[in-house]
């Protein structure tokens, strides 16, 4: 039985319940509830205003142009909406080992190179691990200083005075995750950027709950973002995403920060994507692409062709499409394999596309075009580890499935895009002109797209914005139905 002073909190999304639940009704996570003590949140630094505030006309308040701090990576600046904003908090979430610490230390190094001071709180790694990473990133020459955790106590470590720090270097690395220690370091250093790596390892001595629990993580994040806002320091909180919900996830913090970035990618591949899912100072859904190398993360300035291996048609079942990611167009290869059933249940496996979408496309091919897919197995992948969620990829998925079934290959490099309606019709897709322009840039010879996009694409062509390497650009084939589009891709 829960004591009246305790509450159960979901580690994944932070929703609360008066009793233990096996599955969170908010986010659907299993076994994520744990008991926490109620009302331990401390109200420190919530600055009281003297007297009642007077209302002011909104029109008299001038919009603030936020000065930005460059991170040293054009791509990262871009996803942030132009760089870091002093006083604003960024949450950088991702699975362990994806490269958060690497990118954050690189950012610290860049700011230090511009004569700005950085406080890097390393709450979960040993000095040796940090030193090794700094060496790989070539940061040894920037004279980062490390303040080890005070032995046996959770109390604040002594902070060197700012003047001596200035002589020593511009990055102060603070070991350990004591909130009071971090607070005193921030107030004595007044850095341009505070990096907390990770927020789940920071703990406040004033709270009874365990480090990593929802109330600790929330309270520490709230306190640090208030403190940095007050002092005008940019703040980056690294947050681990764990599948098992053993740590309070970054989801619980999303509403507290100004910007949320998620790192994506597979650890065994070198590609790393950073996606912005919330931004008070810029566009959401922006995407930055990096490669993990021996000496840290290297940005990919023009990633449009990085997910494909050349533009020549690869074989039956491989079709190129142009996907939209935030503001940028990425060429992607969709691969499908339709085979006689291998064994047992029918397999419909997908990687990088939604399985339900593939099932719907299969059904449309069967019932509207009379293509017999029987009880064959269907596998659909996007190559290069990219995930595509937009309907504009549907025509390419349909073409890849039919290509695999009939053993047919387009006879020139072609990009296929369009949304498929349940009647077998093709529907307009957003920003077709931009996609055609990117395909043209990479040397694609033909683009098959919905008739409904004819006007905008031809207008862009008349303006000269979609011509490619040869000048005139790819052949454009506008189709109003799925059947006509497939005829255009493979020839009749
Ligand atoms: P890290 O930044 O520690 O991940 P996170 O903070 O998100 O847990 O990244 C660790 C991985 O990156 C590790 O597998 C080693 C690899 N790595 C490189 O390949 N090159 C490098 O220069 C660095 C610093 C790390
Ligand atoms: Mg790390």
Summarize the structure.
With 492 residues, this protein is α/β, with parallel strands linked by helices. It has helices spanning 74-79, 100-113, 127-136, 162-168, 179-189, 214-231, 355-369, 394-406, 432-441, 454-463, 482-490; strands at 6-10, 16-17, 33-37, 89-94, 118-122, 145-147, 171-175, 193-197, 234-240, 259-264, 271-279, 287-293, 296-299, 318-325, 328-339, 348-351, 377-382, 414-416, 419-420, 426-427, 446-450, 475-479.
Which CATH-level-2 architecture of the largest domain? 3-Layer(aba) Sandwich
Unreliable parts: 40-46, 152-156
Alpha carbon gap, first and last residue? 71 Å
Based on Cα principal axes, name the global outline: globular
Query: Helical stretch count?
Result: 11
Percentage of helical residues? 25-40%
Largest sheet: 10 strands, mixed
User: What is the H level of CATH, i.e. the homologous superfamily of the largest domain?
Assistant: P-loop containing nucleotide triphosphate hydrolases
Radius of gyration, in Å, reads 26 Å
Mean pLDDT value: 86
Q: Can you tell me the number of structural domains? A: 3
The CATH topology label of the largest domain is Rossmann fold
Number of strands: 22
> What is the CATH C-level name of the largest domain?
Alpha Beta
Question: Could you say which structural class the secondary elements and strand pairing correspond to?
Answer: alpha/beta
Bin the strand percentage: 15-25%
Bound molecules: thymidine-5'-diphosphate, magnesium ion
Neighbour order of strands in the largest sheet: 6-7-5-8-9-4-10-11-12-13
